[in-house]
From TrEMBL:
One of its GO terms (molecular function) is shikimate kinase activity. The keyword Magnesium applies. The keyword rRNA-binding does not apply. One of its GO terms (biological process) is chorismate biosynthetic process. It is found in: Cytoplasm. The gene is aroK. The lineage of its organism: Bacteria, Pseudomonadati, Pseudomonadota, Gammaproteobacteria, Chromatiales. Catalyzes the specific phosphorylation of the 3-hydroxyl group of shikimic acid using ATP as a cosubstrate. Keywords: Amino-acid biosynthesis, Aromatic amino acid biosynthesis, ATP-binding, Cytoplasm, Kinase, Magnesium, Metal-binding, Nucleotide-binding, Transferase. Pfam families: SKI. This is Shikimate kinase.
Amino acid sequence: MGAGKTTVGRHLARLRGMQFIDADHELEARTGVDIPYIFDKEGEAGFRDREEQLIDDLSQERGIVLATGGGVVMREANRTHLKNRGRVVYLYTEVEQQWRRTRKSKNRPLLQQDNPKKILKELMALRDPWYREVADLIIPSKAQSARSLAMLINQKLTQMEPKS
Ligand SMILES: Nc1ncnc2c1ncn2[C@@H]1O[C@H](COP(=O)(O)OP(=O)(O)O)[C@@H](O)[C@H]1O
Ligand SMILES: O=C(O)C1=C[C@@H](OP(=O)(O)O)[C@@H](O)[C@H](O)C1
Ligand SMILES: [Mg+2]
């Protein structure tokens, strides 16, 4: 959360002339409600079930840039689909930076409590190994604009062999 997946992903899609899809926005469009509402009514498990279904669906698309939610690596099926069906970029961000970028937002239910920095730290410890396992490319996102990060990712993807 707060790494810049949604923002950088949109720039990257523009640079590559591809369609951009944000999994959370797509889920909101398909259900007609927002992410906090889904967490509220169905809990995190309900959200994860919907997310898993959606990732299976979207990862079969070709020629898109897909920004996932940060918790996507929590389910093994998601990790497998992303790894097998696309090229995965891990936008690494320090917890302090994540916290600064997310502290005013009301849109991330997991952080709507007293000590969001502690939650971000715990989630990082749990998830970082999975992000690294799934990633084809690891990009530290420290102190660079979203557009320059997208340009860097674009360049690195272009240097890689096309995924068959
Ligand atoms: N490289 C960046 N530099 C400065 N601000 C950024 C950068 N990437 C994202 N942001 C800002 O941080 C916030 C969270 O970004 P977002 O793209 O929603 O992250 P994610 O989708 O990974 O949770 C947004 O307000 C966005 O404008
Ligand atoms: O890290 C997570 O578990 C989540 C990240 C969010 O997306 P962003 O990573 O785009 O904030 C969103 O999917 C949901 O609130 C859960
Ligand atoms: Mg996002």
